[in-house]
Each structure stands twice: as C-alpha cells, then as structure tokens.
Specification:
single chain, 2 helices, globular, mainly alpha
C-alpha cells in the first residue's frame, strides 16, 4: 500500500446500535444535540464509561433532516 492511500474502517461508518435496557443519558444527549454549530465534538472518558452507547443514543435522537 502506498503512503497516499487511505484505508476506510467500515465500523467507523456505521452508527452504533441502540440497545434496549440501557441507562438513558438524556442530559448528555441534549448537550450533544445542542452542539450542532460546532465542527467537532470530542467525548472523552475511560474505557467502559459508555461513550459508544452515548453516541448511539445521540444518533437515534438526531433530526433525520440534518445532513451528517
């Protein structure tokens, strides 16, 4: 592979699956939803703190009319 070629990791293109029975992070989802004027949002926490679950909840609450 040449230095100028990119490898696309499929898991980074698919939104997380929203599972049932998980703790809803409503306050955090609202904060993330209100960040639509930002170019980049970083969610930082140690392993196992639910970052992927939060991303799935946020994605599930996005307005379908919003261009990702």
């Amino acid at each position: 592979m040449a230095d100028n070629e990119f490898v696309v990791i499929r898991t980074k293109l698919v939104p997380p699956v929203r599972e049932t029975g998980l703790v809803a992070r409503d306050r955090l989802v609202v904060r993330l939803s209100n960040s639509n004027n930002l170019t980049l949002v970083v969610v930082k926490a140690p392993a196992g703190y639910g970052k992927t679950i939060l991303a799935g909840q946020w994605f599930a609450n996005l307005d379908p009319a919003v261009d990702l």
